[in-house]
Amino acid sequence: MTVAQFSSQHFSDLRKYQFSRRDQLPNKQNALWQIETGVVRTMTWLEDATIVTLGLWGPGNVVGQPLSKCDPYQIECLTKVEATLLSVDRGLNREVLLYHLQQAEELTLIRAGKRVDSMLYQLLIWLAKKFGSEVEQGHLIDLGLTHQDIAELLGITRVTVTRTLGSFEQQGVIQRLSIHRIILQDSEVWHYEI
């Protein structure tokens, strides 16, 4: 569904809308999206076109322009997504605000690391806990994140992400299955809380 097609829809009907990977959820000043299935990232960009990822959101999470002061503000699907459009009155509550604050703090702590390998490892732990699934070898992260997506999450270069993931693979910290799928191996650090 294109933004133009969506704009003609009445958003108070609580219908579920389907979006493909890399689609953008339309922004509405007076509406929010509740993610039913899939994962989206909220983002903005700087004057030099540097993308800044504001958060990653999955089933049950609520996102939308009214929750942000960032301009521009964009919601991009990282996977196939089904989402329900809600009025601000219906979708905005204490739990939604608290969750947004907690996620912002978690990402801030991860990004504040002094060493790239530590930041990336903590991000993988966070992704595995938030979006991963347990498999025999560890925790599967199957979000379709590219090295560029990860770089934008951490504020580092894609080359650094590629090099560090390669090092993690050599050390047995991760196993790459296919493009954009990673298994984070079980370890004693897994229980570390952010």
Largest sheet: 4 strands, antiparallel
Chain-averaged pLDDT: 88
Radius of gyration: 17 Å
Order of helices and strands: HEEEEEEEEHHHEEHHEE
Residue share in β-strands: 25-35%
Q: What general outline do the C-alpha atoms trace?
A: globular
Strands in their spatial order, largest beta sheet: 1-8-3-6
Helical residue percent band: 25-40%
Cα end-to-end separation: 38 Å
* Strands, count: 12
What report would you give on this structure?
With about 190 residues, the protein is α+β, with helices and mostly antiparallel strands. The chain is built from 6 helices and 12 strands. The chain has a 4-stranded antiparallel beta sheet. It has a 4-stranded antiparallel beta sheet with strand order 2-7-4-5. Strand 4 (about 40-45) and strand 5 (about 50-55) form a beta hairpin. The model is unreliable at about 1-10 and about 190-194 (pLDDT under 50).
